[in-house]
Amino acid sequence: KAGVTQTPRYLIKTRGQQVTLSCSPISGHRSVSWYQQTPGQGLQFLFEYFSETQRNKGNFPGRFSGRQFSNSRSEMNVSTLELGDSALYLCASSEQGVYGEQFFGPGTRLTVL
Amino acid sequence: SQQGEEDPQALSIQEGENATMNCSYKTSINNLQWYRQNSGRGLVHLILIRSNEREKHSGRLRVTLDTSKKSSSLLITASRAADTASYFCATDDGYGGATNKLIFGTGTLLAVQP
Question: What integer pLDDT is reported at residue B93 of this predicted model?
Answer without folding.
Answer: 75
